[in-house]
Amino acid sequence: MLNSFSNHDACKLLAEGAQLVDVRSNAEFTRGALPNAINLPLQSIMAADNILDNNKVVILYCVTGARSLVAKNYLMQMGFNEVYDLGSFKNYAC
């Protein structure tokens, strides 16, 4: 499936105050993450209400896009209205 959410879209939304969320493990995150990213590992996604502002746009990423897609589905079910999946962190270049 082709992801229609682009790096350009992510950069625009981040400039407007979107939350950038890394759903990789804590260990992966500490080895390197995108600037200003919040670490919320997929296995902890149910705690999103305590960490993220559901009134702001959320942009998710991981290594391949598999975990970020799962996280997007969870957040949408939890009532987050505007959630985007950037896929791999390699897609980011703002």
Overall tally of domains: 1
CATH homology superfamily:
Rhodanese-like domain
The helix/strand class is alpha/beta
Strand count, sense and barrel status of the largest sheet are:
4 strands, parallel
Average of pLDDT: 93
The CATH topology is what? Answer: Oxidized Rhodanese, domain 1
The helix/strand order is HEHEHEHE
Helix residue percentage: 25-40%
Query: Beta-strand level of the residues, as a percent range?
Result: 15-25%
Number of discrete helical segments: 4
Task: Tell me the number of strands.
Answer: 4
The value of Rg in angstroms is 12 Å
Distance between the termini: 24 Å
Note poorly predicted spans. Answer: none
Structural shape: globular
- What's the CATH architecture name? 3-Layer(aba) Sandwich
Describe this structure in words.
By secondary structure, the protein is an alpha/beta fold. It has a single domain, classed as Rhodanese-like domain (Oxidized Rhodanese, domain 1, 3-Layer(aba) Sandwich), CATH 3.40.250.10. The chain has 4 helices and 4 strands; from the N terminus they run αβαβαβαβ. A 4-stranded parallel beta sheet has the order 2-1-3-4, with helices on both faces. The longest helix is centred in the last third of the chain and has 12 residues. It is globular. The model has no long low-confidence stretch (mean pLDDT 93).
